Amino acid sequence: MALITRARHKRKPVAEMNVVPYIDVMLVLLVIFMVTAPMLNQGVKVDLPKVSSEALPQDNNTQVLTISIKADKTYYWNLGSEVDTEKQQDRAMTLPQMTDAVTKIIRAGTEGGKRTQVFIRGDKSVDYGSVMGAMGGLQKAGVGNVGLITEAP
């Protein structure tokens, strides 16, 4: 009888490290950081500085529209300089009325070949939501850029 002998090969120990568990841990940490990162900056107090700035140069092809927000959250518009009372709206408006008025002003300026620069003058006691509402209304009216007017320190 012939014995069949198998050649036994001894397996050498593998010197490589199994990295799959480490990758799993890293992915869990990545997810945790991605979830918590947006929450980190919500509780930060911000003390905005007062800014001194120079007046912007005027262009003959540009009309300036200033939206004023009073403390009682009423809106006013002024086309031109603050001294120019002919083009000033003295009637208090709501946000939808202001949006409609700005849309008409911008259309008229565009038809006349003028570019409209829009600035917001908000009372110090007006809440952030009112200013953001005005900016949203201006965006609906087709305004791309809005400047904020501040006082010098």
UniProtKB/TrEMBL annotation:
The keyword Cell cycle applies. GO terms for biological process: cell division; protein transport. GO terms for molecular function: transmembrane transporter activity. It is a single-pass membrane protein. Keywords: Cell cycle, Cell division, Cell inner membrane, Cell membrane, Membrane, Transmembrane, Transmembrane helix. GO terms for cellular component: plasma membrane. It is found in: Cell inner membrane; Cell membrane. It comes from the Bacteria. The keyword Cell membrane applies. The chain crosses the membrane at residues 21-40. The Tol-Pal system is composed of five core proteins: the inner membrane proteins TolA, TolQ and TolR, the periplasmic protein TolB and the outer membrane protein Pal. They form a network linking the inner and outer membranes and the peptidoglycan layer. Part of the Tol-Pal system, which plays a role in outer membrane invagination during cell division and is important for maintaining outer membrane integrity. Belongs to the ExbD/TolR family. HAMAP family: TolR. This is Tol-Pal system protein TolR. It comes from Pseudomonas kribbensis. The gene is tolR.
